[in-house]
Amino acid sequence: MTHLFARKLGAAPGVQLNPLQDNSEINADQRDQFFAGMLRLSRGRIDKPFLVLPSNIQDKMGRGGPLGKGTNDYKSYVAVVEALKNGAAGAVLQRLVPAGTVINTSLSKLGRASR
């Protein structure tokens, strides 16, 4: 911790300035640096929200699609990526999907051989 003024006036005439140093707002954790959002993504869970960190952006969210006419999907993707690259600790995201989307867990439908 640095001190702005190290000199002491003692008995000499003058004004000694000792600025307040309030460290009560400093947090060791990063809970206040996370944000949440809902957006359309090319990758990610569809059943529940998931955590995205600056280190795994493309692994969890996929790549942003082209900016189509009348859509804000790519703009919201860019906003999340920029926030994570500019200092946010993480994002909790919920992927928006069409109403009829289901999770397919069958191995045969995924093209893998059953054992």
Instruction: Please tell me how large the radius of gyration is.
Output: 25 Å
Report the structural category.
Answer: alpha+beta
Seen as an oligomer or otherwise, the chain set is single chain
What is the rounded distance between the termini?
63 Å
Shape: elongated
Portion in helices = 10-25%
Give the DSSP E fraction (strand runs of 2 or more residues).
5-15%
The major beta sheet can be summarized as:
3 strands, mixed
SSE run: EEHHE
State mean pLDDT (0 to 100 scale).
76
Query: How many strands?
Result: 3
Separate helix tally = 2
Low-confidence stretches: none
**In which order are the strands of the major sheet placed?**
1-3-2
Description:
- It is elongated and about 85 Å long.
- The chain is α+β, with helices and mostly antiparallel strands and 115 residues long.
- It has a three-stranded mixed beta sheet with strand order 1-3-2.
- The chain has helices at residues 57-61, 73-85; strands spanning 34-39, 50-52, 90-95.
- 8% of the residues are buried.
- The chain is built from two helices and three strands, in the order ββααβ.
- The longest helix is centred in the C-terminal third of the chain and has 13 residues, at 73-85.
